[in-house]
Every structure is written in structure tokens, then in C-alpha cells.
């Protein structure tokens, strides 16, 4: 039974967005209340689906007056509990903000709404002869707004940078309903604080992103992919560095291991890529205006440590090789509810970390099953742990403390969310955290935007 105050707020908001875009039925709300990992779930007050920036602003004004906390949500592909309700918040879904404007060919830019999926954005750019620099396996679900909120990195970050590097301008709604709009399409603009850069990675705690002006990159028509079997992570790391030095066309370098490829083959029906299984695999993609295959093949032929290899320039064959990496998340989830720890360490520590983190997990939580894969070109490793109850944080504690010991980051690209707040102090100083809290209070004085994400929740009375 909905409380009277909830009914009044829902009715007021229905007058803004339309009755059909305020969801109160438990079955209709369910998909908005659980994240991809299935570890994080909670009941919302209700779900609202505005269709424009003006509607978002009006909804935020109503929630701010009512003191109702709000969880902004894009494609809900988050992995750290930052995009779902926790204590009966209003879920603000941005999926209907799905307009994308014509590509500006002179500047190589495009303006897109927060609800535009990455796949739609990529196809829109491709049709205009351009490409978008960020790519994720969740491209069919991940949205522009969510990718900005988490500063998504993905598989091509080593060449083009994370989402922050693609954002030239932003439109966002503050907690009080006021609209920040910096969409000039300028590559150089030093007139004060970089608000778009600040909102990238803020996880919906400072403002609700409703749209962005995005940088595009030249489309590179010639591509080559190599899948290389190697004995260990150390060999993969050295081989990746050698290939980067040999050709500037490298766009992605991914690493995965025997336990991951076994799961992928078992749950997807794919066959092993080679006649036998190997301990580790390095996947490399190169892209250029002219065929990058000869340079890639030469770098591989001159390298030591390659146990087996498959190289493809045909699109279908390239996509087949990529499946061994991109279907890891699907296969891991098919085994159970994983603990997902997205971390980064200095490249010099990467190989040692891969070995030590396995030992740390098994030592802290006997019976736990680590499954590792990651972006070896930028030091990012995704540590997945199966076999633990959702609330069992023994492995998380061991992994994140080891990351901090090695001078790494407890979150390379998924954010802090609620999952990693207890360990934030390991890699951010007290002064850092105080400064972040001051920014939060300045932009959201009542603390209604995604409370309890990145920073510990404070009671509303403490916020003024």
C-alpha cells in the first residue's frame, strides 16, 4: 500500500510526465530495482520516466520540495550498486531522452540525449562516416548518460581515452531543478571550472545528466584482430608492449585466462579457439586507414612466447575472435552471482598482481573461484569471484587491499557506487574525501541525489 505522501508526490509527477510514465506496480518496477550483478536490489518509492530535460527539471523540483531522494538511472548496466534504489528512493529513468542530432561534420561532433544507447550512437556515427571512441560489451544497453556518470572506459580506452575525453559539453539538471547547459562544441574553453569533466564519473550524485555534446573520431575501415595463446600474464604483458611499440594502429589489448575461456565455451556453445586449452590469452585489435595486418603479423612473428595464434581481417572472423573476450560477463553470470571487482594497477605490477590476487582470494575465502579478464593495455583487470554469498566481503577486502598496496585504484571504470565505499580511504586521502563531500554539498545541499553513493550517506538534517 502506497503511503499518502508517496501517492501525492506520484500524482504531482504524473501531471508532469503523464500517468503512463510513473510506474508503481511492483512487477513493472522490478527491472529498475536490481542491477546487472543481481547483488544489489531494493524497493523504489516509484519509477518515473521523463521525456525531456524540462520534465526532468520539473520532477527534480517536486522531489526536492518533498525531500524525496532520487536515484538517476540510465541503462542500469552498473556493477557496484550505484544505479538502483536502496532505501525507497524515486528511480529517475532517463531512457526516454533518446534523441540524437545530426553529426556536425565540420567539428566531428554530435549531440545526444542521456538515454541514447551506445549501439545507437555508434551506428549513427558510422552512417555519417565517423566512429565513437568508447566501446563496451554492454553497448546494446549502456546509455550516454550512464556512461558519463561512471566515466566509462571500455575496450578502446588505450587509444581514445575514457568517456571524459569524449565529452565536449553537457546538459544536466541539479537537485533543485536548475539546468546547467554547456554545449558550445568548443575544443578549447578555459572560462572557469570544467563542469562537464566534474560530472563525468560523479555517478549521479551531483546532477542528472540529460544530454551531451560528444567528440567523434575518424572511422578506420581496415582492421585486424589476433588471438594469441601465451603461457602467463607476464608474457602477455611483454607481448602487448612489443606490439604497441611496433604499430601505432593498436586499438585494443585484452587478456583472459583458462578458467574464463572454459566458462565461455561451456555456457555459450563456442568451441575452443585452438586445438587445446592454454593458460592465458592476449587479444589484440588494430585499426587504420590502410591494412594493419602486415605490421601486426610481423610483430607477432618476431615475438617470443606465443604458443598458438589466430589472426583475422575479415569482419565475421574478427567478431568470432572477440566473442571469447566479450562473452565472459555472460558466462560468469550463468555460474552464479559474482562479486565483481574492477581495479587498476601500474603496468609494471600487472603480471605480479594477477598471480598474487588469485592467492589472496583463495587464502581469504577458501572455496572461492576467481575468474579474471581485463584491458591489459591500460592496467585494468576485472576480478570476478564466484562461490561466495552476496554479503561475504572477505575476497573483496583481500583484493582491494592488495590493489592499494601496489599503488593502484580500487575502481578503474565501474565507479565506487555503494559497493566500494568501505575501501575508498585506501586510495583516496582524507583531504580528497573532504573535498569531494564539499562539492557534493555545494551542488546538492539537501543530499537527495543518489545518497549513499561514492560517499557515506548523511542524514538530511545534517545537510541543511
Question: Briefly, what is this?
Answer:
With 464 residues, the protein is α+β, with helices and mostly antiparallel strands. Helices cover 33% and strands 20% of the residues.
Distance separating the two termini? 31 Å
Shape: globular
Query: Low-confidence segments, ≥5 residues, pLDDT <50?
Result: 459-464
The figure for the number of domains is: 4
Instruction: Tell me the number of helical segments per DSSP (H or I, 4 or more residues long).
Output: 15
| Strand line-up across the major sheet | 14-11-13-12-16-17-15
In helices, the fraction of residues equals 25-40%
Q: What's the CATH architecture of the largest domain?
A: 2-Layer Sandwich
**According to CATH, what is the class of the largest domain?**
Alpha Beta
Features:
464 residues, alpha+beta, Uridine Diphospho-n-acetylenolpyruvylglucosamine Reductase, domain 2, Uridine Diphospho-n-acetylenolpyruvylglucosamine Reductase, domain 3, Alpha-Beta Plaits, 4 domains, seven-stranded antiparallel β-sheet, four-stranded mixed β-sheet, 15 helices, 17 strands, globular, disordered C terminus
Amino acid at each position: 500500500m502506497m503511503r499518502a505522501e508517496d501517492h501525492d508526490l506520484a500524482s504531482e509527477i504524473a501531471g508532469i510526465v503523464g500517468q503512463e510514465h510513473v510506474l508503481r506496480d511492483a512487477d513493472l518496477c522490478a527491472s529498475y530495482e536490481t542491477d546487472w550483478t543481481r547483488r544489489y536490489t531494493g524497493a523504489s518509492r516509484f519509477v518515473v520516466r521523463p521525456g525531456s530535460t524540462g520534465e526532468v527539471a520539473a520532477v527534480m523540483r517536486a522531489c526536492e520540495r518533498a525531500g524525496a531522494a532520487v536515484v538517476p538511472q540510465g541503462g542500469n548496466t552498473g556493477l557496484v550498486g550505484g544505479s538502483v534504489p536502496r532505501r525507497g528512493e524515486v528511480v529517475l529513468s532517463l531512457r526516454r531522452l533518446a534523441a540524437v542530432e545530426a553529426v556536425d561534420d565540420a567539428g566531428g561532433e554530435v549531440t545526444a540525449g542521456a538515454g541514447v544507447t551506445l549501439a545507437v550512437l555508434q551506428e549513427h556515427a558510422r552512417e555519417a562516416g565517423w566512429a565513437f571512441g568508447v566501446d563496451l560489451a554492454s553497448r546494446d544497453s549502456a546509455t550516454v548518460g550512464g556512461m558519463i556518470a561512471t566515466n566509462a572506459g571500455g575496450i578502446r580506452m588505450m587509444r581514445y581515452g575514457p568517456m571524459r575525453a569524449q565529452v565536449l559539453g553537457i546538459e544536466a539538471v541539479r537537485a533543485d531543478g536548475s539546468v546547467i547547459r554547456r554545449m558550445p562544441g568548443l575544443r578549447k574553453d578555459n572560462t572557469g571550472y570544467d563542469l562537464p569533466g566534474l560530472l563525468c564519473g560523479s555517478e549521479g550524485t551531483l546532477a542528472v545528466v540529460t544530454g551531451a555534446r560528444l567528440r567523434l573520431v575518424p572511422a578506420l575501415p581496415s582492421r585486424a584482430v589476433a588471438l594469441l595463446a601465451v603461457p602467463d600474464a607476464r608474457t602477455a604483458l611483454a607481448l602487448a608492449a612489443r606490439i604497441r611499440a611496433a604499430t601505432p594502429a593498436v586499438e585494443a589489448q585484452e587478456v583472459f585466462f583458462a578458467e574464463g575461456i572454459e566458462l565461455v565455451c561451456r555456457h555459450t556453445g563456442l568451441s575452443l579457439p585452438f586445438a587445446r586449452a592454454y593458460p592465458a590469452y592476449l587479444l589484440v585489435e588494430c585499426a587504420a586507414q590502410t591494412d594493419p595486418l602486415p605490421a601486426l603479423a610481423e610483430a607477432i612473428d618476431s615475438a617470443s612466447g606465443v604458443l598458438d595464434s589466430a589472426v583475422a581481417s575479415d569482419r565475421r572472423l574478427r567478431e568470432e575472435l572477440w566473442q571469447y573476450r566479450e562473452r565472459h560477463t555472460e558466462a560468469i553470470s550463468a555460474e552464479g552471482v559474482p562479486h565483481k571487482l574492477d581495479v587498476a594497477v601500474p603496468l609494471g605490477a600487472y603480471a605480479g598482481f594477477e598471480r598474487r590476487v588469485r592467492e589472496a582470494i583463495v587464502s581469504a575465502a577458501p572455496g572461492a573461484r576467481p575468474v579474471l579478464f581485463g584491458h591489459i593495455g591500460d592496467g585494468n583487470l576485472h576480478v570476478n569471484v564466484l562461490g561466495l554469498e552476496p554479503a561475504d566481503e572477505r575476497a573483496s577486502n583481500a583484493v582491494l587491499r592488495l590493489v592499494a598496496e601496489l599503488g593502484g585504484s580500487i575502481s578503474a571504470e565501474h565507479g565506487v557506487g555503494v559497493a566500494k565505499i568501505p575501501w575508498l580511504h585506501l586510495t583516496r586521502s582524507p583531504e580528497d574525501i573532504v573535498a569531494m563531500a564539499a562539492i557534493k554539498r555545494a551542488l546538492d545541499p539537501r543530499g537527495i541525489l543518489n545518497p549513499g553513493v561514492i560517499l557515506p550517506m548523511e542524514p538530511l538534517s545534517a545537510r541543511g
